[in-house]
Amino acid sequence: MNKEIRIGTRESQLALWQANKVKDLLEAQGYTTVLVPIKSEGDIDLVTPLYEIGVQGIFTKSLDLALLNGRIDIAVHSLKDVPTQLPQGIIQAAVLERGPVKDLLVYKNDLSFLDNTVANIATSSVRRKAQWLRKYPQHQLHNLRGNVNTRLQKLAAENWDGAIFATAGLERIGVRPANSVELDWMLPAPAQGAVVVVCRGEDDYSRQACSPLNDLTTALCTRIERDFLRTLMGGCTTPISAYAFIKDNTIIFSGELCSLDGTELLTIQEEASLTHAATVGISAAEKILAQGGDKIVAQIRNAG
C-alpha cells in the first residue's frame, strides 16, 4: 500500500518552496504526499535578536517535536538551521543538491556607502556581523529578523544603507532585487544553500522514500562543514564560517573563526583526497583551536 507521507514545514515562502521541492521529488517517484505547515518559535518572535534567544534549533524544534509525536513523517529544513546534534530518534534522510552558497548585500541606492565612515547595515546573523565589522569596523550593525519578504520590506522602510541575505533564499523564491551584489569575500555559514530532510529513525518507509533524493557530493561537503562547526563547539550564535567543495577528486575546505567584534580572525584552508575526506572538518577545527581558537570560543561563551 502506498502510504501518504506527511511533510512538515515552516510556513514562510522559502520554507514552503523547500518543502514543495521535496514533495515534487517524492511524487515523481510515485509517492503520495501532503504538506503540514507548522509554526516555529523563530517565526513567532520576530523582535528578539537570535543570539539572545538561543538560536540553535529555534527554527527546527517545533518540527522535530511534530516528527517525534507522529504528526508528520518527514521534516524539511535549511541545513544551516539544524543543530549539529540531531534529537534522539531523528535521522538525516537526505540532503538535496546544493544551491548558491554566497551571502548577498541588498542595498538602497548605490554602493558608495561602503567607502563612508558611517553606514548602517542590517542582519540578524552573528557570523555576518563579525565578518562585516572586520572589513568595515566603522559601520553600524542593526538587528533584522523575519522571513525573507519581511526583511526586504523592513530594509525598504528603515533608514539603513543595506542588509545581508543568503543568495539561495532570495533566488529560490524569485525576490532577489536588481540592487544586490554577492559578497565574494564573505565565507558562508556551514551548510548554507543546502536543504535537508529528516525522519524518525525507525521509519523505514520514509527513509527509503527519501534516499534517492540524497546528493552525495552535497551530503559529504556539508558534513565536513558541520564537523568543523561541531568540533569548535559552535552553533548559529557563533561567528564560524565554513565551505567545502570537490574539484578533481579533491576536497577543498576553507574555515574561519571570528571574534564577535571582528577584531580577531583565524582561518584555515585544507585539501584532501576523497578517501581521506571524512576527517577534514574535524582536523581543521582542531588546528584552529590549537592556534588560539579556544580563547576566542571562550570569549564568545562568556559574552553570552
From TrEMBL:
Its EC number is 2.5.1.61. Keywords: Porphyrin biosynthesis, Transferase. The lineage of its organism: Bacteria, Pseudomonadati, Bacteroidota, Chitinophagia, Chitinophagales. It catalyses: 4 porphobilinogen + H2O = hydroxymethylbilane + 4 NH4(+). This is Hydroxymethylbilane synthase. Gene3D superfamilies: Periplasmic binding protein-like II, Porphobilinogen deaminase, C-terminal domain. Belongs to the HMBS family. One of its GO terms (cellular component) is cytoplasm. InterPro entries: HemC, Porphobilin_deaminase_cofac_BS, Porphobilin_deaminase_N, Porphobilinogen_deaminase_C, Porphobilinogen_deaminase_C_sf. One of its GO terms (biological process) is heme biosynthetic process. Pathway: Porphyrin-containing compound metabolism; protoporphyrin-IX biosynthesis; coproporphyrinogen-III from 5-aminolevulinate: step 2/4. Residues 5-204 form the Porphobilinogen deaminase N-terminal domain. Monomer. The gene is hemC. It comes from Chitinophaga oryziterrae. Pfam families: Porphobil_deam, Porphobil_deamC. GO terms for molecular function: hydroxymethylbilane synthase activity. It comes from the Bacteria. Residues 220-289 form the Porphobilinogen deaminase C-terminal domain. It is an enzyme of class 2 (transferase). Tetrapolymerization of the monopyrrole PBG into the hydroxymethylbilane pre-uroporphyrinogen in several discrete steps. Its cofactor is dipyrromethane.
